[in-house]
UniProtKB/TrEMBL annotation:
Gene3D superfamilies: 3.40.50.2300, lambda repressor-like DNA-binding domains (1.10.260.40)
Organism: Terrimonas ginsenosidimutans
Superkingdom of the source species: Bacteria
InterPro entries in UniProt: HTH_LacI, LacI/GalR-like_sensor, Lambda_DNA-bd_dom_sf, Peripla_BP_I
PROSITE patterns: HTH_LACI_2
Protein name: LacI family transcriptional regulator
Domain HTH lacI-type intervals: 5-59
Key words, A-Z: DNA-binding, Transcription, Transcription regulation
Length: 341
């Protein structure tokens, strides 16, 4: 096996000291641009690789940040990761991404693995099964910063970055009521998780404020997937009287539900008006286009990453900020628009 090229090999080739090579590779201001260029060209010619591991041992930093999410398939999560990656890469940090597949055990195992990989910081979106944060205690004991985003534990003192899910649920339901809907189905996921419980509370309060009775039979707790959208549509079809509105807390599930209802002769929005959630690209590809809540995933990721990097570089601290709320808004399209304006 060919041995690894070192700074001593570059120094020998150029007949300079190893300290000159080391400083040139780091663009040290005391080294001339001519020497820096010469050293870097020679390093590339010889096949030199920077020994990040040795450097990290000296600085006690790995320049890696862990990201632990509940899944990787949604457009929303991809956009959050894109926002995180843009900011962290510009700051010279790498990402290690792990996902829990909605399993508490897998989340705890991934957290342990990221801890042993000595990440400098950690972003987390909790699984549906997570009921406590004990598996993040080792990070806290070592003063490794953690930022929870999207799915968080509202009772925790940890730094959280979220949208106002309650307001979004209230706004979506109120919009349907303003379009004339009086019997509104809500399709959502496990109410133990903050995002779904708060959207549900917003739905409940909007009904109450408009003097519409809450009916638990109209709240469908489902897996927010393609199958979940299909089964929800089939359940809606069986309900009597037939619902005239639907608030579905995931765009992909809403699109599948909408399409399935159409296949059974239901007119959208005349028979049932539909509102989704996230503002995924699929909203513009279904017919009619889907009304939704804009959930700015890229912005959430970028803001979380900026706060993390500033903390790691000692420019500010996330410890004094318990919650950052990202702006979101209702986008009205044809799937719910029954009235002009």
């Amino acid at each position: 096996m060919k041995r690894e090229i070192t700074i001593y090999d570059i120094a020998k080739e150029l007949n300079v000291s190893s300290s000159t090579v080391s400083r040139a590779l780091q663009d040290h201001p005391e080294i001339s641009q001519k020497t820096i260029s010469k050293v870097k060209d020679t390093a590339e010619k010889l096949g030199y690789r920077h020994n990040t591991f040795a450097s990290n041992l000296r600085t006690r930093k790995t320049y890696t940040i862990g990201v632990l999410v509940h899944e990787l398939q949604s457009n929303f999560m991809v956009s959050v990761l894109a926002g995180i990656e843009k900011v962290t890469s510009e700051a010279g940090y790498d990402l290690i991404i792990a996902h829990s597949s909605e399993s508490f055990d897998k989340e705890a195992a991934n957290a342990k693995n990221l801890f042993h990989k000595r990440v400098d910081g950690l972003f987390v979106s909790l699984s549906l099964q997570t009921t406590n944060l004990k598996h993040f205690k080792p990070f806290q004991e070592k003063n490794i910063p953690i930022m929870f985003f999207d799915r968080v534990d509202e009772n925790s003192d940890a730094t959280k970055i979220v949208i106002d899910n309650y307001r979004c649920g209230y706004q979506a339901t109120t919009h349907l009521i303003e379009q004339g809907c009086k019997r509104i189905v809500m399709v959502t996921s496990d109410l133990r998780r903050n995002v779904y419980s708060q959207r549900h509370k917003g739905y409940q309060d909007a009904l109450f404020d408009h003097k519409i009775a809450y009916d638990s039979d109209l709240v469908l707790i489902r897996d927010l997937s393609e199958e979940g959208g299909r089964t929800s549509a089939l359940e809606i079809l069986k309900k009597t009287p037939f619902p005239d509105g639907a608030f579905i807390t995931n765009d992909f599930t809403a699109a599948v539900c909408l399409q399935t209802l159409k296949e059974h002769g239901v007119r959208i929005p005349e028979d049932i008006a539909i509102v989704g959630f996230n503002n995924d690209k699929i909203c513009k590809f279904v017919d009619p286009n889907l009304t939704t809540i804009n959930y700015p995933g890229f912005d959430m990721g970028a803001i979380a990453a900026k706060n993390m990097i500033q903390h790691l570089e000692g420019k500010s601290t996330i410890d004094t900020t318990s919650k950052i709320v990202i702006h979101s808004e209702l986008i009205v399209r044809e799937s719910s628009r029954r009235k002009k304006g």
